[in-house]
Amino acid sequence: MTSKEDVDGWSSGAKTRFALLPGYDEERVDVMNYWLVKSEPSVWSWDQQVAKGAKGEAWTGVRNFTARQNLVAMKKGDKAFFYHSNEGKEIVGIAEVIKEAYPDPSDKTGKFVCVDIKADKPLKTPVTMAAIKADKKFADMALVKYSRLSVQPVTAEEWKMVCKMGGM
């Protein structure tokens, strides 16, 4: 297994963990352990993730450097919203990081990483992008500000609000 230091010199220290994220705010560093990962359901759906069970699946194919740094910052046990992009445009479940960043086997260049995630639980009610955009409390959420970013940080407050909207 590759350590964080082996992946472009990233350490797991709190200050370096989020320094390159869009909208980086030093006050958010110590509480950041929530994420959002996006997938088109026709490519990889929540149901397919659930079917993988406890062994989970590698989250491969990320080819954006900011999203890559977010993958590097993920820690085992971190939670992530599972978002269906393009089709549905909604948060449908909660996943858990079960293996930290390692080289993405689908990347021939060797520049990108993946993490392993497993499905944790579905949201009772999917939370749509439209509902999030309609609520001004989410104006600074990465999903709203950086809507094309495939792996995003979520603050603890955003996490609580989305979970409440989703019936959790």
What's a concise summary of this model?
This protein is an alpha+beta fold and 168 residues long.
Poorly predicted runs are: 1-21, 24-32
> How many domains comprise the coordinates?
1
What is the rounded Rg?
15 Å
Q: Which structural class do the helices and strands define? A: alpha+beta
How does this structure look, described?
This protein has 168 residues and is an alpha+beta fold. The chain has a single domain, classed as ph1033 like fold. The chain has six helices and six strands, in the order αβαβαβββααβα. It has helices at residues 14-17, 46-51, 65-73, 129-134, 142-145, 156-165; strands spanning 34-39, 57-58, 79-84, 90-103, 113-128, 151-154.
Task: Break the fold down into its secondary structure elements and pairings.
Layout lengths: L13 H4 L16 E6 L6 H6 L5 E2 L6 H9 L5 E6 L5 E14 L9 E16 H6 L7 H4 L5 E4 L1 H10 L3
Parallel strand pairs: 1-3
Antiparallel strand pairs: 1-6, 2-5, 3-4, 4-5
Key traits:
168 residues; alpha+beta; ph1033 like fold; 6-stranded mixed beta sheet; 6 helices; 23% helix; disordered N terminus
